[in-house]
Amino acid sequence: MTASRPTPSVQARVVGRAVALLAASLATVGVVTGLALVVQARAALDDALLAAAHEHAHPEEASDWEVEHSRSPVESWIVTRDDPRVPADALTRVLATEAPTFSDVGGTRLLLLPAETETEAHGASRHVVIAASAAAVRPGRILAPFALGYVLLFAGMTGAAGLFLSRTIHAAFAPLRRARSEAEAVLGLGHGARLTEEGPAEVAPLLHAVNGLLDRLDQAWATQARFTADAAHELRTPVTSLVGELEVALRRPRGEESYREALESAREEADRLRRLVEALSHFTKLDAGEASRGREPARASELAEVAVRTEGSGVEAGGGQVRLRVETDAELVVNRPLVELALANLVRNAARHAPGTAVEVRVRAGAGPARFEVDDAGPGVPPEEREAVFARFARGGTARKADPGGLGLGLAFAREVARQHGGDCTIETSPAGGTRAVFTVRGG
Fold this sequence. Notes:
By secondary structure, the protein is an alpha+beta fold. It has three domains: 11-143, no CATH class; 204-283, Helix Hairpins, CATH 1.10.287; 294-441, Histidine kinase-like ATPase, C-terminal domain (Heat Shock Protein 90, 2-Layer Sandwich). Helix content is 53%, strand content 16%. It contains ten helices and eleven strands. It has a five-stranded mixed sheet with strand order 6-8-9-11-10. A four-stranded antiparallel sheet has the order 1-4-3-2, with helices on both faces. α6 (256-287) runs parallel beside α10 (410-420) and α7 (300-317) packs parallel to α8 (336-353). It is rod-shaped, with a radius of gyration of 50 Å. It starts with 9 loop residues before the first helix and ends with a strand.
């Protein structure tokens, strides 16, 4: 397997790119400045040549000029025919255009200026060409001192900028380094250890989100630990009872009727074990967030009809009946199987705690949460027990007497489903004096 190359740190990448950008900017400024210096030196030399030629043509006018970036003085003279210092083509061009003409001859900058000068006889004037020359501008001589100073400045600024950025980013990442140390100190879930959320605006939300993740992990861990403990405890009872029944049955030879009674008892315990495993599997789906997935549109009345149809035969077999009344209806978006199962649990509980009586299911779905009410005419739940019965495997005293085979999971399951749909499940007193289970869910 090929080892992957290590990715440079954010600090190294940011500092490297920032210093590269600064270096490119300084280099561009240096080149432009150097070109400007050369252009300025040439313009200054041309101005000096023009001033010298003008002074030579008009010596009576005072002139103040100097040659910049040149170690040679400006020399000016009147061009004569066949002057060896003046190229013939340049002289021809200036006579034709009668305009100042600059040219480079070897290492010399030459100006040819057409002018009129007065003669000594009778003040007459004549047309002449005045030449002015000086050493040409050498870019190397101008740029060498500038380049030396600019390179030193370049190195100093890029180095200082890199050091400043490196320390600034290192300080900005201090909350992340602290968070890493705190995260490494978290040895397990359930201890409540959290990261310090102090830091800049870019880092604090991340730390807050990590703490939220730890909260959810702790909650999931606690739920899983509670589920495992409850499942182990509740599974132990029917398994122990089943093994005991079988051991007693096999301890000595028995008659057919005695074996049948033992098998009937074992079947009851196996059925209880089956129902317990099914209930625990449903809770596993809830704890895994199944209610938030697979949601689909469903009419509130349809959900109640499925629950009534599912449990109706069992209620009638016990001598009772189930009535459904839809006062208002609405379309909901829910995890349909879980909501139908929760409503069926409420109907089953009502039938068990009030056998032989009528169970009424009422649907009220308006602008707010959809409300399902399941009423029975049984003994009811005392007010002081109405919250405790929603704990998993919890059963009130009257429930244990009326239905010793119950699991104590129906109400807990219904409340979990309702809350994961934005509603709740509570216990009230029915109009007949029994229990009213109120199950609510939100439509969206």
